[in-house]
């Protein structure tokens, strides 16, 4: 399994594959467990995103929410030290590609990108699960 690549967010073909009804993401679309994880991490997140562009703040929030959803789906504890780093890796990845995306993109494209950012966070947890646990069980 490959590490998620934030630069794939820049690929317009990826966004075209997302059904329009899946695009909107908010806290209510996530599991209760994911929402609880997100609320716990929120105070750290606020310090991390203070002073950043509003849309970038939203994207980082969506990516972190995706990470929380991934932890919930994989039944992993986000508070374990070996799991904590994924939050900061995802934040740095999103910051790294954000400025390469046109701020004048059409609204439906922005909506699709938001969904991709959320999914990117979830993919990171699946990768973490593979790297730390599943790959060692297989080999």
User: What would the average pLDDT be, to the nearest integer?
Assistant: 81
Structural domain count = 1
Number of strands: 0
**Overall outline:** globular
Percent range for β-strand residues = under 5%
Q: What letter string, H or E per element, gives the SSE order?
A: HHHHH
Helical run tally: 5
- What is the distance, rounded to the nearest whole angstrom, between the alpha carbons of the first and last residues? 13 Å
**Main β-sheet, in a few words?**
none
Structural class: mainly alpha
Description:
This protein has 5 helices and no strands. It has 139 residues and is an all-alpha fold. Helix 3 runs antiparallel to helix 4 (81-98), helix 3 runs parallel beside helix 5 and helix 4 runs antiparallel to helix 5. It is globular and about 45 Å long.
Topology diagram in text:
Elements: H1 12-16, H2 32-49, H3 54-74, H4 81-98, H5 107-138
Helix pairs in contact: 2-3, 3-4, 3-5, 4-5
